[in-house]
Every structure is written in C-alpha cells, then in structure tokens.
Design a protein that fits this description.
30% helix, seven-stranded mixed beta sheet, six-stranded mixed beta sheet, 10 helices, 318 residues, Metallo-beta-lactamase, Chain A
C-alpha cells in the first residue's frame, strides 16, 4: 500500500468516527458492597454488621492531645478531620443462640447510618431470629437500631445491659438533673429501650457474669458509668467486643492515653483502654471494635509506648 493510499484510508476512518454516535457511558452506581463480614471463632460464627458511617470532628472531642498532633496522626493514615467512622455491630451464632452485640445508630443521628437490618438480612438472617441483644453502653449510636416508632425491631429478642448503665440512663431523676446539653442522651435511651422494658424483654445484669455459654460480660466503666465489653470464647479462641474503648484508630492506638471529652470518667476510660490493649496484645486475641473501619475486626499489637491496629485479613469461612 502506498503512502498516499494509506493516508486517504486514515482520513476516511477519521471522518467515519467523527460522525458515528458515541456509545452511552455506564452510569455510576454509587453504592457499596453489602455490609457484612464473617469469620469463624472456634465453633462460633461471628458476623460483623455495618450500620453505616458517621463523621466526627475529632479535634473538638479529643483530650490530652494537641490539634497539631491530631493533624499529623491523621495525615500519617491519609485521613483528615472530620473523620468518617464506621458504626459496627456484631452477630454471634453459637449454634444454639443468636446474639447481637449493639444495634447501631439506626439513622437517627447521622444520615449515613440506619443500614443494620439490611446488613443483617444480606448476611442471611432475619431480625426475628435474634435471641438476645447485648448493649455495650447506651449512647445513641449503639442503641438507636433497637426500635422504631415505639415498636421493637427485634421482636423475639431479650435486651441485656449492665444494671449500672441502665440505672444511669433510664431513671427519670437523672434525666431531670441533667444539663440541657445532656438531656437528649437520657431521653433517647428511655424512649428507644421503652418497647423492650414494657414487654418485659429488658433484663439488666450485675457485675462480670456469663450470659450464655461462651459469652461473658466484663465491666469496663469509664466511657459511660456501666460501659461493658463482651468476651466471646469457643475452643480456646477468644474475641473481645470492646464497644467504645477506642474511637479514632489513627490517634488512640499510638497514643492510648488520649481520651474523649464526652467520656463520663476520662481517667477510668483511659485506664480501661490501656489495660485491654495490653491484655489483647499479650494474649493475641481478636478484637471487635464498634468504630474501627468496617468490619472492625482485628488484633492489637504493641509498638513502643503505643499500639498498632492490625485489621483482619480477608478470609472465606470454611
């Protein structure tokens, strides 16, 4: 083929392309994968459930650290303030009991939440199958998914929390004595737990007790007066659901002494975090964290004066 002939063919092709209709581009989907992740703990099936995410302006809420330090810690993890935190709950199937630990925010406070029921169903379960719900504490992002419009969203479940936590949040005299800024927290706890209380389905417990075989409540008071972790154990494998012992991975793992301004007792909260981190790192046990990036499952590793968060490696249960 001569050069002139080749150039003519290229020119003709270009002209054809210029008049040909463009193919329509595929629209962006803008949704995420279903919010569940599973692993086996001995003979127990653990399913992390995502209620959604919320944005927290952490520099307004952290104590014991400067704004410049927070910015450096966030930048190291490619984050910036406000930080998008996951809101996680955890489903434990022991083979005889189906237990939900916390219920998420339920879309009541942040539009990015409210997906717990959808995540539960995507994971292959129905709300009616949940036997018991264990509450780490009664902040709204842990109990908001329990009820809606005065109706229980888990119709067959018994809700359990420490009596110390229940006495603090559910007593009318504490609501009356609270400051105007604090009153909504008490009102929410009373309202959202009311359907279970009325049905006789709210059963507080006292102290560190075994609730069912393989699941034990452990008091870790400080973030709230009755904050509780739940130790799950099967065939020598252990996982601790830690609730709000930690909020911001990028800051509170390297600096576990950093507290939150809305801790009820910041000194106690700090002490419990340090104790749990040390024990979890030493025992190499699993951690299930309410606000670590979904699925919130991983391990704690000692690193000098601080710690590292080592997230779960993706695995397909067998």
């Amino acid at each position: 083929m001569g050069m002139k002939q080749g150039l003519r063919m290229l020119a003709a092709l270009a002209a054809l392309l210029a008049i040909a209709p463009l193919r329509a581009q595929a629209p962006m989907v803008k949704t995420q994968a279903p919010g569940f992740y599973r692993l086996m703990l001995g003979e127990f099936e653990i399913t992390a459930l995502l209620d959604g995410t919320m944005h927290l302006p952490i520099k307004e809420f952290l104590s014991g650290v400067t704004a410049a330090e927070v910015d450096r810690d966030l930048a190291r993890d490619f984050l910036q303030d406000p930080v998008e935190l996951s809101v996680n709950a955890f489903l434990v199937n022991t083979g005889t009991k189906l237990v939900l630990i916390d219920s998420g925010e339920g879309g009541r406070m942040d539009p990015g939440t409210g997906h717990l029921i959808a995540s539960l169903k995507a994971a292959g379960y129905q709300p009616s199958q949940v036997d018991e719900i264990y509450v780490t504490h009664m902040h709204g992002d842990h109990i908001g998914g329990l009820s809606r419009d005065g109706e229980r969203l888990f119709p067959n479940a018994v809700v359990r929390a420490s009596r110390q936590e229940a006495d603090y949040w559910l007593k009318a005299e504490n609501l009356a004595a609270a400051s105007d800024d604090a009153k909504p927290g008490f009102q929410q706890a009373i309202e959202w737990l009311a359907p279970y209380v009325k049905a006789g389905k709210f059963l507080p417990f006292d102290g560190d007790v075994a609730l069912i075989p393989g699941v034990r409540a452990l008091g870790t008071h400080g973030h709230t007066p009755g904050h509780t972790c739940y130790l799950i154990e099967s065939r020598g494998n252990r996982m601790l659901a830690i609730g709000d012992l930690v909020h911001v991975e990028a800051v509170q793992f390297p600096k576990p002494q950093v507290t939150l301004k809305f801790d009820t007792d910041s000194n106690a909260a700090r002490a419990e975090r340090l104790r749990v981190f040390q024990e979890a790192a030493g025992n190499r046990e699993w951690i299930a964290a309410a606000h670590m990036s979904f699925p919130g499952l991983g391990h704690v590793r000692a690193d000098g004066a601080g710690y590292d968060w080592v997230p779960a490696s993706y695995s397909v249960p067998h």
